[in-house]
Amino acid sequence: MAAAASSTDRPGALDITRRLAEICGPPFARLAGPADEVAGRPARWVAVPGTARAAADILRLAARHDLTVVPRGAGTKIDWGAAPDGVDIMLDTGRLAGIGHERVGASTAEVGAGTPLRAVQATLERTGQRLALDAPSPGATLGGVLAAGEAGPLRHRHGTACDQLVSLRYLDADGELVGAGGGAEGLELARLLCGSQGALGVLVAATLRVQAVPASRIWVTRPVWTPLEVHDLVRTVLAARLDPAAVELDLPAGAGPRPRQGSRAASMARHPSMTGRATTGPARAGTLVILLEGGPADVAERADRMVSLLGGGASASHSAPEWWRRYPFGPGDTALRLEVPITDLHAAVYALRDAAGAPVPVRGSAGLGVVHAALPGAMPAERVASILAAVRGVLLARHGRCVVVSAPEPVRRAVDLWGELAGLARLRAAKEHLDPHHRLAPGRLPGGL
Q1: Where are the strands (E) in 201-325, listed by range?
Q2: How far apart are CA 30 and CA 46, in angstroms?
Q3: What is the pLDDT of residues 55-73, one digit of tens each?
Q4: Single pTM value for the model
Q5: Calpha distance 406→373 (Å, rounded)
Q6: Is the pLDDT score of 411 beyond 80?
Q7: H helices of 86-226, where?
Q8: Is 247 helix (H, G, I), strand (E, B) or coil?
Q9: In whole angstroms, how far apart are CA 262 and each of 117, 275, 285?
């Protein structure tokens, strides 16, 4: 932070501070503080524009002075991805908020990028509607969800936020307001900005599809012990065509083979081959949970069929499990995202276990083959690198990938966060077209873009 502070003493720095205050208003422009950083990279200024025009003026100011700009929403995923090469101006979108006035029963809603997702849902619920989005990050803004490509359990039935886009308004690197949508070509551009971490444009507002709030929701829960068991159960669930809204898996670090029962287990524990081996305590069961939504009678009937189908202690509840919509990783962990065809999800989890030498917590959308996992933050960077290499080697043959979502700085420096990326050439072309001078979050995208 000291380096960032000293950089604001350069000639012209005070003039930039003054100009930002003129654009945003004195309370909404300041020198950056210790908490104003992106993946460990400190910012120099923080600006919070109240309108799209003010945000455009900030980008034009940055262009004149060759300054970099990194957008920030609520900051819930500010440490995801690679650290930018530099952060001169952190453009906070918190005041670019609000929900457009739509008639009751409208099929779409326009939402400001800085609007917290929970505020959007609370507003829509007053008219019996919702966005089919349930991103796990508490307090996340819609713009942050789009920019990070974040999705929750409902992605199984409804897709990600990017899949539900109708149109998008964003500012390019020169401060021009651009509308994307209204056709296949426009939607392709809009979805290109999804997951771009603000490196292709500054999101201003998005129009998304809305739907009626389901009258009933039931979660069917079934204990599971191994990835292979999960594989078989997921196949059964999908083949039953009971229209699940979500198919989620939680495998804690302690999950393992189903414990043996009776005296045989005790005698095996006393066998000479076990001498000197550390006891890990009883294995904990994981959980497979299927969410069903719809009319009360229909959901109840489908839930009964699902419980019968799954067997093995399956049960139904009108409330979600405690871990629902939560990541398995915490601050300081190395967070991974595994994406693989559902037929190979068990192979990916086994590969991760084998490489790590023990089960690691895994959670996510088993019905889509997209799950997150966590490695301890204290694990040495070279150990993380070897685990990644082993897992990616297994996934490569299965058309899957393993991405490092976030990690401590030593790990971030030592590993390739993305691995193989088929669309890198297209991404590079988009960066050169939309931000040729690399002023927007430079270095945040794969390939150092």
Answers
A1: 202-209, 211-212, 216-224, 246-251, 286-294, 315-317
A2: 6
A3: 999 999 999 999 999 999 9
A4: 0.89
A5: 11
A6: yes
A7: 117-125, 142-148, 155-158, 184-193
A8: strand
A9: 50, 21, 18
